Amino acid sequence: MKLCMIGTGYVGLVSGVCFADIGNQVVCVDKDKNKIDKLNSGISPIYEPGLDELIKKNFTAKRLSFTTNINRAISSSDIIFICVGTPSRKGSIKVDLSFVYKCTKEILKYSKRKKIIVTKSTVPVGTGDEIEKILKKKKKLFTVISNPEFLREGEAIRDFLSPDRVVVGTDSNKANKYLKNLYLPIVKKTSRYFRTSRRGAELIKYASNAFLATKISYINELANLCEKTNVDIKEISQGMGSDQRIGDRFLRAGPAYGGSCFPKDTRAIIDTSNKFKSNLSIIKAVIKSNEDRKKLLTEKVYKILNNNLKNKLITFLGVTFKPNTDDMREASSLYMIPKLLKKGAIINYFDPSGKKNEFKKFKRVNYCKNVSQACLRSDLILLHTEWNEFKTLNFKKLIKKSNFKVFDMRNLYSPKSMKKKGINYFGVGR
User: Fold this and answer.
1) Run of H or E including 267
2) ∠22-24-27 over CA atoms, to 5°?
3) What's 366's DSSP letter?
4) Alpha-carbon distance 86 to 10, whole Å?
5) In Å, what is the CA distance from 395 to each residue of 60, 361, 405?
6) In this predicted model, what pLDDT tens digit does every residue of 114-126 receive, in sequence order?
């Protein structure tokens, strides 16, 4: 099939590349010329394991192309995927849908024959209806479908090619047949193709993310209780997760949830509930709990250092919100580091995904090229992100001090083994 992906951000690029890899003709379009130039040179603008190789493979096979010419991209395609950003409006819980509606107007402008329009961007309930209103002048030329993505950063290619489910929201049998054929190489062996109403598909995405965010906040609050009752949160997670009704995923205590989805999507579903006068009190509590989590863990650092942070060297191992991604959006480190600096601390950090622009404005924040350089003379090692290379460190060899401390925010290490080695160790919920 001939597909057009509007937007080469995380969703558009990964989806476009994977669609090309299963045999479709895909053109990815973006207004950012620098990004398109990089992609045409075989350079991915995002960090995602395995993506560079798939881009080169399908670009070479001429199944995948990149352009800034939206007219050509739309005109040459049968199915158009809207994959642009839907961020929260500044200082608001409301979703900014301006990019979605701008795309819709361009599709209307350049389309001269029948097209299927698919919203892959995460959008509130009723957005498909609004898109149809924009298209009303040529309504017979378009069918609007909701097909939300469920890609985890760091696992996106596997999630796309072997999904738990593919959700397609449409009342059109004909359009559904096209989408089912498109996804057939993916769903015939590994997963379930689930057809629902368009509004149902729009809400499924928000409901799923809000539930997963709830699991994270729930286990984090239980970790607070475990610390006061001398219980290990890992035992609780394993005991709970063994129950098939609950499941063990997203039951690992740690920092607040972050990234591009959970924070904005929990806020967005609250905005939808306000619009329809339906109280989602549990999700409201989750949002507050997550914000409190950042404060609580920062205050724990103060206690570990006896409230004396002046000129103390604190090393962050990992600063992204999760491993295998370079995404810094709403990572706990963005909250913690400025707070620690205000108390007089000096910050070293190392992250396998590279130096971060977010910290350039701080004079006492130093990017280090490797773990050894970052840890050398630290007073406190803070394990913030669970990258694989942080899971088997020899702290005594790394650090040239005898009285250093380790705050393991991901519970990567055993308290007993750390105690045997004479390391002053602190975990989460332990």
Assistant:
1) helix 262-275
2) 125
3) E
4) 12
5) 45, 30, 10
6) 999 999 999 999 9
Q: What is the CA radius of gyration of the chain?
A: 23
Q: Please list, residue by residue across 31-59, b when 16 or more beta carbons sit within 10 angstroms of its beta carbon and e when fewer do.
A: eeeebbeebeeeebbbbbeebeebbeebb
Contact between 28 and 13 under an 8 Å Cβ cutoff? The reply is yes
> CB within 8 A of 156, min separation 6: which ones?
10, 14, 48, 51
Percentage helix, strand, coil for the chain under 3-state DSSP, each rounded to 5: 45, 15, 40
Residue type for position 420: K
Q: Per-residue pLDDT tens for 38-54?
A: 999 988 999 999 999 99
Catalytic residue ranges? 261
23: left (phi over 0), alpha (psi -120 to 50) or beta: left
Query: pLDDT tens across 144-201, in order?
Result: 999 999 999 999 999 999 999 999 999 999 999 999 999 999 998 777 999 999 999 9
Lowest mean pLDDT among 42-51, 175-184, 263-272, 372-381: 42-51
From the number of C-beta atoms within 10 Å of its C-beta (0-12, 13-18, 19+), residue 187 rates as middle
Q: Buried b / exposed e across 373-406, counting CB within 10 Å, b at 16+?
A: ebbeebbbbbbbbbbeebeebebeebbeeeebbb
Q: Is the pLDDT of residue 18 over 90?
A: yes
* Amino acid (one-letter) located at 224: N
Report the C-alpha gap between 295 and 114 in whole angstroms: 53
Using a 10 angstrom Cβ sphere, with 0-12 exposed, 13-18 middle and 19 or more buried, the burial of residue 8 is: buried
pLDDT at residue 157 in the model: 96
Q: Which helix (H) or strand (E) segment is 196 a member of?
A: strand 192-196
Residue 139: pLDDT band with limits 50, 70, 90? confident
In the predicted structure, residue 232 carries a pLDDT above the cut 80: yes
- Coil/strand/helix, residue 329: coil
